[in-house]
Amino acid sequence: MEEMLRRILTSRVYEAAIETPLDAAVSLSACMSNNILLKREDQQPVFSFKIRGAYNRIAHLSSEEKKRGVLAASAGNHAQGVAFSARKLQIPALIIMPETTPQIKVEAVKYFGGEVVLHGASYSEAADYARQIIEETGMVFIHPFDDPLVIAGQGTVADELLRQNPGELDAIFVPVGGGGLIAGIAAYIKALRPDIMVIGVEPQDSDAMARSLEKGEPVTLEAPGIFADGVAVKRVGDLTFELCRKFVDEIIRVDTDELCGGIKAIYQATRSIVEPAGALGMTGLLKYVRESGCRNKTLIAINSGANMNFERLRYVAERTMIGEKLEALFAVTIPEEPGSLKRFCRDLVGERNITEFNYRLSSRDRAQIFVGISIRDSRERQSFSRQLSEAGYENIDLTDNSLAKTHIRYMVGGRSQEVQNERLFRFWFPETPGALVKFLDATRGARNISLFHYRMQGGDYGRVLVGLEFPEGNDPHLEERLAALGYRYREETDNPAYSLFL
Length: 502
Known about the structure:
Blueprint: H1 2-9, E1 22-24, H2 26-32, E2 35-40, H3 50-59, H4 63-68, E3 70-73, H5 77-88, E4 93-97, H6 103-111, E5 115-118, H7 123-137, E6 140-141, H8 148-164, E7 171-175, H9 180-192, E8 197-203, H10 208-215, H11 238-247, E9 250-254, H12 256-270, H13 280-292, E10 298-303, H14 313-323, E11 327-335, H15 340-349, E12 354-359, E13 366-374, H16 378-390, E14 395-397, H17 402-406, E15 422-430, H18 435-442, E16 448-455, E17 461-469, H19 478-485, E18 488-491, H20 496-501
Parallel strand pairs: 2-10, 3-4, 3-6, 4-5, 7-8, 7-10, 8-9
Antiparallel strand pairs: 1-2, 11-13, 11-14, 12-13, 15-17, 15-18, 16-17
Helix pairs in contact: 1-8, 1-9, 3-5, 3-8, 5-6, 8-9, 9-11, 12-13, 12-14
């Protein structure tokens, strides 16, 4: 702890980074009955806290190391921090980025003076290639999180927090990816103010630190989620794990819908838009308040980054109400007869707002509708389902059904009387030219594509729904072909939303 404290206090971050403000979220504080503050790391020169650790590490290089140049493997904010820092120190910088990296991030790295090489379909492939280049050139690798000087640079956030808010402070909510930011903050806070809780926040599908702490050693995720791409790491650092094990009080997991709600909460408080990973702190804070019922506490959320793809905003807006627990989605069976829809809306929906309604005639006796209902909280969602059942309406709550929210809602009425022996799959295609052709080559043979749905959502991967028809019976080699293809996928043939609507 003493060594890390010394490194933080002697960091050279302010040659490149700024001391970011600690803003009060006045209206949100009143709504949540707590004093909520936002640490605005989204206002750094590269719109992320990553510049702190990157610059501190590079500034401490020897003269001989600086001549060799620096190299990083990153798909986002660390790459920009390294490029910016290297340019300021007049050091050559090479950044290896996956071919799936959004163009906005590639252009940002080039703007900050970094040379970009695109390689591989994932961060892991880019990192492997980076290690190969290091062996060939002798360039210095700048790790995104598992380095004492990087951690110390990120830890300067905590030093600022205690100076900006020297009085009462109950908890700090910190986004967690590889663990560099929370390791630095936690080590500093626990050295000076051990009474303050340091709480990490991770996506449910990228929870490498939470799993590692539960197991007692670093674990490797098979396929981290991609929505919060800034924290999508397979394995946390060895050093960051040890610091978190000693000094972090708790890790909160949040889902994608809750994360979208967190982005909206920050926008309403600051009129700024943060990236999904940047909103983790706020999302965890809101979840903590809802579940603990705490009142009159002083809580700080770290706004860690604002490198948001504009195209992703549509997806965020669609999922926000569910994330805020203000919308519920249902599949409801109603009689196919005159007046039945009116009765459903009048007698059951009542004063609630209908947020979405999808329907298409599928038979002459019953109709399946996909409906969104505005609610006040989760209890009302359960109450509405019971109300439907008591009125004789079969229903399925689809609010937590990812297939329904991502695809089915846009495809209601897609049932075919012609298709035979169909199996349904969800795929995550890399957003690169030739991805579909590669898929078609891998699945060629005694099968037919009977359904295909894709909608760009601004991420590194496209979400694709595919129906495969096997008129001559099942294909025993299908799983083998899909495994060789290498795309992440999940079979959804048994999903109730599929049987109801498709």
